[in-house]
Design brief:
Shape: elongated
Number of helices: 9
Strand content: 5-15%
Number of strands: 2
Helix content: 55-70%
Strand order of the largest sheet: 1-2
Oligomer: single chain
Largest sheet: 2 strands, antiparallel
Number of domains: 1
Structural class: mainly alpha
Order of helices and strands: HHHHEHHHHHE
Mean pLDDT: 90
């Protein structure tokens, strides 16, 4: 949708629920990477591989939204990300709106680093052991506090008249329904 072809009255903003559904579809798309991360934790035990898999996971959303205006989940639900003047977003906007998740990934990498350094890591052989060891990380407190940031993003998204979360407002983006 171009600014010239539409007015803001024609726009239908994607609600929290449709965006959540798109995120769930994207979760299925990135599930293989998540499974590889878990397999790496339990069997391979390679921190460089962990970094690579985390970076791959981290790049999916911003690169898809920059290049195609949507992730596969958003495409499936017929919504897309546009700038606040309804044009394609640039790479800075794509990464800017994803910044809360990038910070979360970085906190995860720091937590993984802690886990990989512990003596108990080499004997770890189950997801419950992995979770317990991760919870002991000094970074876990920051990750727990960071959860409140996500709650604020969700609340702002739910109650905003254009369904913009804080991350959208900062990046000057909107998520709208596709008119096709």
């Amino acid at each position: 949708m171009d600014k010239n072809n539409s007015s803001s009255e024609d726009v239908k903003y994607a609600s929290f629920w449709i965006r959540l559904a798109a995120a769930l579809v994207d979760g299925l798309v990135t599930l293989p990477i998540g499974l590889l991360i878990t397999y790496n934790f339990l069997s391979i035990k390679s921190y460089p591989l962990m970094i690579l898999l985390t970076i791959l996971s981290m790049l999916y959303k911003p690169l898809m939204e920059w290049k195609y205006r949507a992730t596969l989940g958003k495409m499936a639900l017929k919504i897309k990300v546009v700038s606040d003047n309804f044009e394609f977003i640039n790479i800075e906007q794509a990464f800017g709106r994803y910044m809360p998740w990038i910070i979360n990934h970085i906190l995860s990498l720091l937590s993984y680093f802690y886990v990989f350094q512990t003596d108990a890591f080499l004997e770890m052989d189950s997801i419950s052991n992995m979770t317990a060891l991760s919870m002991e990380s000094p970074i876990e407190t920051a990750s727990s506090v960071y959860l409140y940031i996500f709650i604020i993003i969700i609340v702002t998204l739910i109650y905003d008249k254009r369904s913009q979360g804080i991350h959208d407002k900062i990046a000057k983006t909107l998520v709208i329904k596709v008119n096709k």
